[in-house]
C-alpha cells in the first residue's frame, strides 16, 4: 500500500533537510566510494532502477520559493 510518504534519500531526512550533523567531505572521496555509497553504477541507473528510486525517494526537485511582497 502506498501511503504517499517517500523515504528520504541516503543522508536525508523525511522533512527534506539533511540535518545539522557533520558531513563527510564528499569532494575528497574517491569516485568509486561515492558510487558505492549511492549504490549507483558508473554508467548511471537503468530505467527500472531509476523508476524504483523515483518511487522510493520522489522527484529530485526543490520546493518553489514563495514570492515576497
From TrEMBL:
Residues 1-69 are annotated as: Disordered. Pfam families: Cation_ATPase_N. Residues 29-66 form the Cation-transporting P-type ATPase N-terminal domain. SUPFAM superfamilies: Calcium ATPase, transmembrane domain M. Residues 49-58 have a biased composition (Basic and acidic residues). This is Cation-transporting P-type ATPase.
Amino acid at each position: 500500500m502506498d501511503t504517499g510518504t517517500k523515504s528520504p534519500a541516503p543522508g536525508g531526512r523525511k522533512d527534506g533537510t539533511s540535518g545539522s550533523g557533520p558531513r563527510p567531505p564528499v569532494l575528497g572521496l574517491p569516485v568509486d566510494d561515492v558510487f558505492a555509497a549511492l549504490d549507483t553504477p558508473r554508467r548511471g541507473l537503468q530505467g527500472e532502477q531509476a523508476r524504483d528510486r523515483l518511487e522510493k525517494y520522489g522527484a529530485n526537485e526543490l520546493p518553489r520559493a514563495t514570492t515576497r511582497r
